[in-house]
Specification:
Length: 116
Amino acid sequence: MKNRSCIVCEKEIPHSERLDKKFCSIKCRNRHHNRNKSALREYRKGVSDSLEGNYKLLKLYLGKVVPLTELRMLGYNEKYFTHLDTKGDKVVGNAVWDLALQKVNEREVKIYQLQL
Ligand SMILES: [Zn+2]
């Protein structure tokens, strides 16, 4: 029979234990889950901070046409938006809550407020 080891501390799991057992103890199981939760928490905070940063920039430029490069230089990250603003089947812009950014030409975008 193949030896199995704890995925946290690599201590051997006795053959008498369940076949699908991954941890040697409750302590290791908790450590594993806490690490995963902490990583998820950090990831979510990063996304949330990026959305918040993007929203602040959109608010600063609301109603204006601005070069996308300028927004990027100030920290705008196009990867983070809350949803697509659409008209029918057509995507009009990328929104961060009630503010959105719409491409007006190859270089510039217009910042506008959604009709809620
Ligand atoms: Zn362990």
